[in-house]
Amino acid sequence: MLAYLHRFLRDMRHPGSRWTIEAFQIDLAAVKLRRYGVLKIRGLLDPGAISAVGAAACDLFSERDARVAAGECLTAPERQSHLRRTLALDRIVAGGRTAAELLDCPAIRALAGLHLGKPPRLDPNSYVRALIPGPHIQALPFHQDQYILQTPLLNVWIPLDECGVHAPGLEVVVTDRHDLIAVAGLPDHALPVERARIDEWLVLEMFGPGALWRPNLSPGDVLVFAGTTIHRSHVTPGMTKPRLSVELRLVPSVFL
Ligand SMILES: O=C(O)CCC(=O)C(=O)O
Questions:
Q1: Ligand 1, from 38, 245, 246: best to mutate by most atoms within 8 Å of Cβ?
Q2: 14-53: burial string, b at 16+ Cβ within 10 Å, e else
Q3: Is the pLDDT of residue 166 over 80?
Q4: For 19-252, CATH number?
């Protein structure tokens, strides 16, 4: 009873502290990831690498915006990612190193290997995303990545800016359930994430509002979550600052 009360008070004071770790320890990280479906690791990545990726992404966004403003026709996939404010990760290079190299982290690769039961590889469905508060914000609805990719995966979500308070963050459902749930999206919608859309009322009905977590994140922090973890963009009317983030999707290597 006393332990329960202690945990309750700690959770009230520091929401998410049970699924946040300060110093990476592989076994603890793997247990927490399985138990909660999500894990925040503080200060894991080199801030220099984060700002290099952020600067290279900003340059690419500006360069594409300029081409559009000059009336250049984009290919269909380019147009889609222009409208969604995303960039394929493999396009980003800074100082002769790709974003995947700059953000590579052996600890995360080891965690992904344990989580997936196979050595991981980076799936091409890995992006930089910009969420810019305002009428055209490209916020994503509740979904599970595994529904879209049709394979188990680990999403390694890396903020390139402070987010969660003044800039859009992410909202995740904390649960030990690892199954796919019913989608409400239209099966012929052009956008995969819209086909994978899960109704908010269903999430609330199944998990309750207490399961929703909206972490505050700083550059260097990493949020990892399972392919089955339900999540969406977290945007409030009070948010005014833009946010850039990287989503790396690690999937099992098929040939190993
Ligand atoms: O960055 C966001 O707001 C949404 C990202 C997301 O849903 C994802 O990484 O699957």
A1: 245
A2: ebbeebbbeebeeeebbebbeebbbbbbeebbeeebbebb
A3: yes
A4: 2.60.120.620
